[in-house]
Amino acid sequence: MKKLIYLTAIVAVLFSCSQSKKTEKVMNPFFEAYTAPFGVPPFDKIKNADYLPAFTEGMTRQNAEIEQIVSNTAAPDFTNTIEAFERSGELLTRVSVVFFNVKEANTNDSIDAIAEEVAPKLSQHRDAIMLNEALFGKMKAVYDRKDSLNLNPEQARLLEETYKGFVRSGANLAPEKKEELKKINEELAMLELKYDKNLLAETNGFKLVIDKQEDLAGLPEGVVASAAEEAKAVGMEGKWVFTLQKPSWIPFVTYSEKRELREKLYKAMYNRGDNNNENDNKALINQFVNLRLKKANIMGYDSWSAYVLDDAMAKNPENVYSLLQKVWNPAIKRAKEELADMQKMVDAEGGNFKIESWDWWYYAEKVRKAKYDLDEEQLRPYFELNNVRDGAFAVATKLFGLTFTQLENMPLYHPECQVFEVKDADGSLIGVIYLDFYPRESKKAGAWMTNYREQYTSPEGENVRPVVSLTCNFSKPVGDKPALLSYDEVETFFHEFGHGLHGLLSQCTYEGLAGTNVSRDFVELPSQIMEHWVAQPEVLKMYAKHYQTGEVIPQELIDKMEKAGKFNQGFVTAEFIAAAFLDMDYHTIKTPGDIDVNAFEKSSMDKIGLIKEIIPRYRSTYFAHAFPGGYSSGYYSYTWAEVLDADAFDAFKETGDIFNQDVAKSFRKNVLERGNTDEPMKLYLNFRGKEPGIEPLLKNRGLL
Fold first, then answer.
1. In which band, very low, low, confident or very high, does the pLDDT at 1 lie, cut at 50, 70 and 90?
2. Is 496 designated active site?
3. Which domains does the chain carry?
4. Which of 13-27, 232-246, 499-513 has the lowest mean pLDDT?
């Protein structure tokens, strides 16, 4: 199934391939076995011109493989039908994972054009397979006999998930409905590309240019130096340039004393995609919502959320709304208290204004400093990027016995990438991990984990080890200073590293069930639990070392961090939950129609009582998780998984040892290694022995 689900939008027409292409095929690196160390993609040999022929041939080969299954005269069984389908599409997967990952991390006009050409074809290809009546007939014949097949648990799970995947893709629909579905899938595939392209253009298209020294008041030295380097890079030497990339934007709105400039940069951020220009996303949102509703209706559901959640741990929209409300109530209460504290500070300073959303970061930092004598900039010198990276590695070593060795002279898709070999305690290969840390105009915003190869067991019995990648947008080195991270960036790296461990430690037979191929509201458990180690005093002493002196972070600072750990959690939680509500509100719409996006968003936020001083973490027009991303009706999943990860970390704390080997082994064995080989809650119960409650989450956030 992984071959077809890797790109949710993807499915395509059979490309023709003539004999005249033989020479081209030989020279195309996708057509040959990878010879680079560890079988990583030969990025140094891949040219943009290689992608389309490889997509063409990949689809051609998979169609031939599907035809073999369909035309097989032997009675359909697990091996010749389910397993054969699972193993199909190897070349298509190979080119897809490289192309679409590179597109996200290092795109250009040529790659964007290829994506626009290939996306509808891939969509057609997927539908042609998933809606193939003869193929589904064979799948169903095997499924109907599942209880008599003597399958092992993983085989039974693959059969269940494969059959369900076909049904949820429309295999049971009438012919005319299948045709309708094909058109919708193709349109959605193109919408995803367009929305992402618009958002990247909007993010890159704004620059706050400062040419007066006095307008830099309040900004830390490193932030100013970084802005000067940015100015130099864009031909404005002698000035300072701030962008909408997080390492530039967040420090400015946090420290700049110039309120009007904070407002300007802040509004540029939250108006992305909402500027009534060629990059506006409001019309696309209308199309997303209506097309998804139409697709859900065709599939027999009254809303897109009902369709999506039927295949998630949450099961239905009611359960999601219930969880969000339980977290929302204490969060917004606390946020109002935080607002009152900040307004008191404004009034005490003689400010003749009420706090606005563009003031929150600035005054929250001032209150933090006043209450806890902690300025986050004090922490940066102790969070040198490579030390943070090695700290995460050290945690994985202490928990799971893993070792990480940097590899030189490896093929890279960008020169800034780092590559590491990962070994188990017994010296056996676990996998390879790529790290790509810094923002650039060719890279989409945010941070994510992905695979260049999934773990699986080959038909010959070889345990093929994964190649995973972590892509981030962290603070860059400035001048002779190395990359010094904010605390939020440190947490982000540990988070993505948790996803990486989930992919690396997989021990499954089938690619489609391996690693992170689990439900959205379970996939964030391995990532979010890693965040719990970030600020543990004994962990900080492992990696938080001053970049100049090598001095371990002093206990005084650790104490201040601990005291301030739950500061501003009302705001952080409220802005997040607000976005989750917004995602759900769009996707629980049951009647098609024209949506006034801004009015809808306001109504959604008014309904839950979001105060005007806070905007949702993602507004509609740059909500990449909910629209082009794979988290539509799924942004809640971070909170759902937080219930799990808070409870899971308690399992370590209850022993008095955050590196308890018995608990670590159980978490690895029952969660990280198992992928999607069983129901998520069953995997969790095998680890924890009980279902989690919401109290640990609220306690961790200081909301209880």
1. very low
2. yes
3. 2-172 (1.10.1370.40), 206-270 (no CATH), 380-563 (1.10.1370.40)
4. 13-27
